[in-house]
Design brief:
PvuII Endonuclease, Chain A, 5-stranded mixed β-sheet, alpha+beta, elongated, 3-stranded antiparallel β-sheet
Amino acid sequence: MPQIEKSMKPQLTIEKLQEEASKFAEMETSYNEPSLYGVTDGKAVGTYLEHKFTVYLADRYDYERGNSAAGIDIPGLKVDIKVTSIKQPQSSCPFKSASQKVFGLGYHLLVFVYEKVDVPENRTGRLNMQHTIFVKKERTADFQTTKGLLEIIKREGNKDDVVAFILDRNLPVDEIGASQLADRILESPPMQGYLTISNALQWRLQYRRVIQQAGAVSGISRVR
């Protein structure tokens, strides 16, 4: 039987991913793209950049590509790629459970923040990459929710206090779920999160605080 040739490409790691994201953002900032001219749909811009970056990685590294079943872009590294405009730095992600708002999404985020400009002279669009940030999964919980819970624990709050807080914050959970979540919080308090996560059919993630805190807080790195 013919031997299957192994890939000669190196394995992608978290460290290499951040290095390549920095290089990619640098190149993209000076690249004029005709298909982006006049495009104002943030989703279309995000799809363009995510696809271009994953192809860029696949040319250089051996790694598991994401699909709709996996739910995230690089499942082998537990990383999802997010692309957002500096005008309103936010995106959506699938809702799994209310506990994501307390303990994090369960995966890391690589966030590209761009400013889009059109160049009328040659009818192209350009994405000036303003920030490229890597957020470890431990920091992907909601800022105000985790801050409030940690303050309750610090003030010797009990289960009733935690349940009341969960219900007051309108977390998408019933009373039984709130009771179970409170037990988990008291047994293993969460880390301070830095996203703003709004309740919706999908979570709406907002990144303004992450942009401000990148490089100043452990677990949030300014890649570029």
